[in-house]
Amino acid sequence: MEEKNYYAIIEAILFTMGESVELGKIAEAIELDKKETQKILEEMMEHYKDPSIGVEIMELDGAYQMCTKPEMYEYLIRIAKQPKRRVLTDVLLETLSIIAYKQPVTKAEIEKIRGVSSDHAVSKLVEYNLICELGRLDAPGRPLLFGTTEEFLRSFGVNSIDNLPVLNPVQLEEFKQEAEAEMNITMNI
């Protein structure tokens, strides 16, 4: 039986797929168990840290993807000439934060927290592929549920939503008081 070059096989899979591939699917393709496959992927990830290599392998919530290293973006932009740069306004960031921390969440729940309509913000975040529809809530009207995508994880450099920063209770209380003060000022106008 000939020795397989697992690095080359995994590299070809990740390069060709272009999006993340679950660990189980990679393991199945190379006919190894998940533990052995993960060990190989970790070795490869370490290899790709070499500054002479322009790509890296990222783990995204139990799946793996080959990506361009962020320090190479400048050169890609020179080639593209007109990069599609997403601008995340304060409104979009606020809406995205609510979705990231509360997911799955309905538009009505987002609007209750924000206090204003979120149609435009949700539409833009879907367009940017930072959030997606996760299904429908089993309630009257069957509202859509929204959650973050792998693109969100990639863009913000986190492996899983479980790794999002946690606000300490003191900060949370300060934010709440600031929001209430702003609401009082708005209502008194």
Give an overview of the whole structure:
By secondary structure, this protein is an alpha+beta fold. The protein has two domains: 6-73, Arc Repressor Mutant, subunit A; 90-188, Winged helix-like DNA-binding domain superfamily/Winged helix DNA-binding domain (Arc Repressor Mutant, subunit A, Orthogonal Bundle). 52% of the residues lie in helices and 14% in strands. The protein is built from nine helices and six strands. The strands form two sheets. It has a three-stranded antiparallel beta sheet, with helices on both faces. A three-stranded antiparallel beta sheet has the order 4-6-5. The mean pLDDT is 87.
Protein topology:
Elements: H1 6-17, E1 21-22, H2 23-30, H3 34-47, E2 55-60, E3 63-68, H4 73-80, H5 90-102, E4 105-106, H6 107-114, H7 119-127, E5 131-136, E6 144-148, H8 150-156, H9 169-188
Antiparallel strand pairs: 1-3, 2-3, 4-6, 5-6
Helix pairs in contact: 2-3, 5-7
List descriptors:
single chain; 189 residues; alpha+beta; Arc Repressor Mutant, subunit A; 2 domains; elongated
Number of strands: 6
Instruction: Trace the largest sheet across and list its strands.
Output: 1-3-2
CATH top level of the largest domain? Mainly Alpha
Structural class label? alpha+beta
N- and C-termini, Cα separation: 80 Å
**Based on CA inertia axes, which overall geometry fits?**
elongated
Question: Which consecutive residue ranges, at least 5 long each, have pLDDT under 50?
Answer: none
Provide the number of structural domains: 2
Strand content: 5-15%
Count of individual helical segments: 9
Measured on Cα atoms, how large is the radius of gyration? 21 Å
Task: Compute the average pLDDT.
Answer: 87
Helix content: 40-55%
